[in-house]
Amino acid sequence: MSANLNEQSPKALTHFTSPELILPELQSRTAASVIGELSGALQRQGRLSDLGGFCDAVMHRELMSATSMSPGWALPHARLKGLARISFAIGRSSRPLLWLGDRGSRVHTVFLFAVPEMEAKTYLNLIASIARLSQNAELVEKLRLAQTAGAMFQILEQVPLRQPRPASAATLPACLEAR
After folding, report:
1. What is the CATH classification number for the domain harbouring 136?
2. Within a domain: 179
3. Is 162 within 8 Å of 122 (Cβ atoms)?
4. Residue 52 has pLDDT above 50, yes or no
5. Which of 35, 94, 116, 139 lies 20 to 30 Å from 52, alpha-carbon distance?
């Protein structure tokens, strides 16, 4: 089912996660096991039904093109049929992880996205918001230092979600404009 932004327009990153999907200290030490650990959190919160299929899709996608980025983050994801809504889990590691495909890249924070197949636009707005967060040194540092899932959630509440631009007559092709 597709999220309708007109019904209840999400305002912050927290619309797509919950404190139960935030792991302040990952137990896993490899990219594959981190993906499994975060996927398990998504499944426990009812955000996934097919844990194995989702993990396989995420790993396949990561092996094609790793999603690590500055400031030491990875953004693995999979777009699948059968997901009810976009969700993400976030985990942090006190020991940097060597991420898939990136020989020198060390990751300490992982955002794992579960994206319904038909939600590409909302997903791109969500990723744009994550990119803006990565440029905010103050919030990045607060996120890095937060001790609990609740504290991390409160920081994510401060990150506005990029809103889609409404269609307007100015964006219509000339042949469709009213004369």
Report:
1. 3.40.930.10
2. no
3. no
4. yes
5. 94
- Tell me which residue range forms the domain holding 132: 13-162
Q: What residue type is 100 in one-letter code?
A: L
Are 90 and 109 in contact by the 8 Å Cβ rule? The answer is: yes
With respect to residue 156, please indicate whether it lies within any of the assigned structural domains. Answer: yes
Q: pLDDT at position 9, please?
A: 66
If you ran DSSP here, which 8-state letter would residue 167 be given? P
Strands (E), 24-163: 68-69, 73-74, 77-80, 87-98, 106-116
Q: What six digits make up the tokens of 177? A: 């404009």
Is residue 4 included in any domain, yes or no? Answer: no
DSSP secondary structure of 38-49: HHHHHHHTTS-S
Tokens 């990952």 -> residue:
26
Q: What kind and span of H or E run contains 54?
A: helix 51-64
72 within some domain: yes
- pTM to 2 decimal places: 0.85
Decide if 90 contacts 130 (C-beta within 8 A).
Answer: no
- Using the structure block, give the residue that is written with the tokens 């990751």: 107
User: Would you state the pLDDT for residue 6?
Assistant: 39
pLDDT-derived band of residue 8, with 50, 70 and 90 as boundaries? low
Q: Are strands 87-98 and 106-116 parallel, antiparallel or unpaired?
A: antiparallel
Four-residue CA torsion sign, 116, 120, 122, 125: positive
Number of domains comprising the chain = 1
Report residue 3 as tokens.
Answer: 């999220």
